[in-house]
Amino acid sequence: MSALTDDTLPVSPRAVRDEMIVFVLMAALLAIVPLTGIYPFFVMQALCFALLACAFNLLIGYGGLLSFGHAMFLGTAGYFTAHALKVWGLSPELGILVGTLGAAGLGVITGVVAIRRQGIYFSMITLALSQLLYFIYLQTPFTHGEDGIQGIPQGYLFGIFNLAKPTVLYYVILVGFLGGFLLIYRTINSPFGEVLKAIRENEPRAISLGYKTDHYKLLAFILSGTIAGFAGSLKVFVAQNASLTDVHWTMSGEIVLMTLVGGLGTVFGPVVGAFVIIAMQQYLAGFGQWVTVIQGVIFVACVLTFRRGVIGEIAHFFRRSL
Amino acid sequence: MQALYAQLLVGLINGSFYALLSLGLAVIFGMLNIINFAHGALYMMGAFCAYFLLNLAGIGYWPALIIAPIVVGIFGMILERTMLQWLSGLDHLYGLLLTFGIALIVQGVFQNYFGSSGLPYAIPDELKGGMNLGFMFLPIYRGWVVVFSLIVCLATWYLIEKTRLGANLRAATENPTLVRAFGINVPRMITLTYGLGVGLAALAGVLSAPINQVRPLMGADLIIVVFAVVVIGGMGSIMGSIITGFSLGVIEGLTKYFYPEASNTVVFVLMVLVLLVKPTGLTGRAA
User: Fold this and answer.
1) B35–A120: do the CB atoms touch at under 8 Å?
2) Labelling B86: which of A79, A126, A308, B195 has CA 20 to 30 A away?
3) Quick check: B108 and A296 CB within 8 A?
4) Is residue B176 part of a domain?
């Protein structure tokens, strides 16, 4: 089986240095966004999806597991956070905690089922599980079915930061994104991450070396789902609603697309991919269903000619790992 | 009791579509090592093909039953020649991503021109009306769909398991290089196999047109259920796909009668149970 990414080199000090430089550049660029006059809601939305795509990338890029149902974490955390804020009247930090824990719980339940099969079956199972959840959310009263949960109060984070102010909200989202990103980066470069890569490259050999690969895969799945859920909880404060579109399979497809465009198994690829796809959706919003067609064309083009993605191509050109 | 039998019949009909589609997926996976995400979109194209034949050319249901699978099958073979063949040797997942993209394109284009609402397709005159079987009223068209699908499924099974062509096909699945050494044109066989699988999907589309109306997204949700069917049944055996498809349709029908709230989800729940008890699927061997 050929690997999905050609990043088989062990982590070198140079790679870590390169990645830290890029990370600082990225953080600095994102930090000055409110000063530039760029529409902050666009960037906030893109940041939520970027973290979501990074969480998805942890599974596919480092574990070799293509989840076609990651929207279920986005949607579940969104519903939980929205419900906690609006109905229970919890504070924002507790709302985020409820949503993230909800996604973590979902990750445990679905992970136990999904990791029983590998490769193509894993993708079909995660897709089917998210569809199962879609129908459950369609029918349970607390999600308000087709209407979704709307008009969610933003409140004061830790009782200090007024999230109704766009600039404050922007920096809160940015801190959340950078925190999640660093957590994923730390995971990839930890001994745990190395074992994951070993499993991706050759699972039977990893088993023969004494690793309980199922435990590693389950942990990776739960971690990925939890971070995806955290992104979903943050998104509630930006969009101020939680709806069925966030659980639908088209959303799962978009997450895959973002990561594919940016570069599967690259550290920064999902971030770039998320910005590209969200920007495309913004600019093409008036074209109706043609957006779907264009997304399909990008899928086809990426798979046929551009499998490394934007960041993957750049990294390959400079022979660096990014 | 009438309602129970009626739901059983609906279940059998859905089961026919599950069987025809999962059969096609299994055949394609065997030869191409690709899970064809575009299968639902091609099923939809089959139904639209019948609709166009009737409304633009005045060609009725019976010729459409043959023409639509051939037209869509040729479209599928073009897809295979121009795109899918370049993926051989790459990870299976790329096939899934590519065909997902194709599905988005096809469904998006149809949605642009036809919206999301259904277009009516009349039942052919010969199959109108119904029979009173004593215990239930059987609409003839629905009975026809079940019987005809079963015949097509069994014919496909016979073709693959019992004929010389099928033997070559199975051999090429096991070891393409060796089969090529015998002078058999394996790439052409792969193209034809994809055409066959796609043709079966289109045939299911034509059969469903008078029942479910013709809609651009008619295959989008169906294909996810069919994936669950494939996970439950495993793709190792043709007969397994047929039996799993029909039985899951029946179980879904029974659920609609006894506990309608769960009818959307029962197949997925069964998939979870099967994975917990027997992860390889009911007919599958260890991967």
Assistant:
1) yes
2) A126
3) yes
4) yes
